[in-house]
Design brief:
Elements: H1 8-21, H2 24-32, E1 38-39, H3 40-47, H4 51-63, E2 67-72, E3 75-80, H5 84-95
Antiparallel strand pairs: 1-3, 2-3
Length: 98
């Protein structure tokens, strides 16, 4: 059996991203952004939460490199940087099925 060399820096980065998404509201945001980019307004309206709460969660996800953002006038649009986290969430959902 071949010995696997672990890259500690990559493991730390992965753990940091997983900690960032380990919140029900952040998982919901990632799920919303799975198909298309959305504005902050669209996100908080779809999730029925306060704008400040949505911004807080979006900033955490963006800070950990999970989301990308772009400004168009006064609106900021968010999108997933990678579909990989969505796949992880789908895997977790399959593991929790009865």
């Amino acid at each position: 059996m071949a010995k696997v060399k672990l890259d500690i820096d990559k493991l730390e980065m992965a753990a940091s991203k997983l900690r960032a998404i380990a919140h029900p509201m952040r998982i919901a945001i990632i799920d919303l952004l799975h198909e298309k980019q959305l504005s902050v307004t669209e996100i908080y309206e779809k999730l029925n939460i306060e704008q400040a709460s949505a911004s807080h969660h979006l900033n955490i996800l963006k800070g950990k490199g999970v989301l990308a953002s772009r400004r168009n006038g006064k609106k900021i649009f968010y999108s997933l940087k990678s579909q990989t986290l969505t796949e992880i969430i789908e895997c977790i959902n399959r593991c929790n099925e009865s």
